[in-house]
# Entry
Amino acid sequence: MSATTGRGPYAKSAEVRRRILEACVDAFGETGFHGATMKDIAKRAGISHTGLLHHFARKEDLLIAVLELCDERSADFLKSADAIDPAEHPVEALRGMLTVVVGSELQPGIMELHCVLSGEATSPEHPAHTYFAQRYRSVRRFYTEAYTALAARGELRSEADPEALAATTLALINGLQVQWLFDRESVKVESVIRDFLVSVAPGLAR
# Structure
């Protein structure tokens, strides 16, 4: 059977790559980018160091691939949640973003990865610095557009301007995610974020 049919060496290579990226999520989430080693990642993935280098020649390449994987998962959740243009459909967009935060990000491994790497990446020298800077700008812009649209419709219940409210929302989410890592039983990320969003955008309650 041809390898292009979804089996054979191509499928095997894709499976190995998946194992490598999952191993990276765990390794980077536990020790950060600088603390993880290629040998440790290879061991976690169940392959040789040489086998790892065949797929990813540098640790920086692994980091990029892992961040792209996280973005793909978030994008899939956005699509499934119908989180569309925040300027045109702000309530639906906010509801969809909540689904992303809870569904694609609030998972052991993924959340450790985000918190550890985003902390490390505050240094301009970190290879993920630009990625996280752009990500935070993008998320703030998303919320700013949604809140601006709600304000224009008279449906925003807040004295803060949309841009400041967007930064506050992101700060709340990030802070709750860190707290959740310390106390996963008591910290109810989804309900707290939903209550906050409903307090500023009552239309979400419907």
Notes: Residues 1-5 have pLDDT under 50 and may be disordered.
